[in-house]
């Protein structure tokens, strides 16, 4: 495969095609749709981040002296709903996946370009419902919408928030279907299944989860609306319903959703580590098997969220066993990434710093997940800040870090421009330091018994909360800096050339930015994935 290294700006590329508003809002180019998603999820990310910052400012002192208890409930609900449903789940698949998947496969576009555009409009419609809920006074149920509170007692805008999440689920299904068909039907000649980049495998597994699990979420959210609007006894025990039915249905989707969020990040990190260690990924086939194993095992561990809900002892033991078991594929990845780095000539670029941060933070999150898989310990720390810290080490320390790493890695391909290497490293280090300062104290708070979702707490917990809030400030800097220097690079960044990282993969064989239909002619693949030569310069 030939690689373009021309340092000049390409004369024709997808960003030059029809710069009018109509050209963007009616585009069927997967690369432009990726930009539509990028702008949308960035807006939701900073909305959810603002709510998180207000939460930490409230918790800097023991008494509830910044906002009322009711406002605090609405803040953490807004933070969770926006971050989980409108940022974490769509982030990598809808942006980097949309942009890269066809190019990595040697295709001109996704299998269903119009369906791809529709998925963004569905996502936007769901977001508008959620924003309507915020404007209408907010919602105070938390991101989980637990019954019977959400159906009987809450006086907040539950229906609008639920409908927003219900609608955005269809965007996930459409994207998943598109990715599955594209991966099966549109691979370039010679691109066999075991020559696929791990990023493609990760998005393929994620798409299977989205298509199979999201309809369950849609059904349970519709049941909430039906019970709340019409008083039908689905979850209300006074009417013959069962509130635990909601938990089973909700977590049957929502634990696989954890892997919707984290699997694409694992694919990103695999690409980055291979590139900047200049080595093929160690144990490629084992990585593929572990990716698909996580997608399967993710469907049989939902009950570990319900150890204190009164389920039978035997069910608890089985869910505990499968939770321990699902850690094995993740451990395989961590060991294989470490083996890839072993004796490598590591290039500490900004994407690599993000990738290495991911490995460290995800490992801590995974190990604490093993702790929570033990029923006795889970009962002790359930609904405390220990669970909050574990969740954020996986979701923020893992997924957000990998998302930013991938955005920096492929930014030259998206834009044809380079960013400031100095400021990007500063941002990556600020994120790592700020994140640990924010969430590691919460492990200690939770183990000592501080419950989450309270806006007041005993004075004994003040020091650790002050540390956590200080870390949140550093973390905010780590998030704001990329917004600034990446935006600056769009106008003033140096021209990137086709392959500034000297990476392998079909996406690096075309100009930066790429042509509208990616390839001037259909490529033919003759090498395995990650054909790096460790002895080359």
From TrEMBL:
UniProt KW keywords: Electron transport, Heme, Iron, Membrane, Metal-binding, Respiratory chain, Transmembrane, Transmembrane helix, Transport
Places the protein is found: Membrane
One Gene Ontology term of the molecular function aspect: cytochrome-c oxidase activity
GO cellular component assignments: membrane
Membrane-topology annotation of the record: Multi-pass membrane protein
Family: Belongs to the heme-copper respiratory oxidase family.
Ranges of residues in domain Cytochrome oxidase subunit I profile: 13-526
Family matches, as PANTHER family: CYTOCHROME C OXIDASE SUBUNIT 1
Organism, as annotated: Halomonas stenophila
InterPro entries: Cyt_c_oxase-like_su1_dom, Cyt_c_oxase-like_su1_sf, Cyt_C_Oxase_1, Cyt_c_Oxase_su1_BS
Protein name per UniProt: Cytochrome c oxidase subunit 1
TM spans (from-to): 34-55, 75-96, 117-137, 157-181, 201-224, 244-269, 281-301, 313-332, 353-377, 389-410, 422-443, 463-486
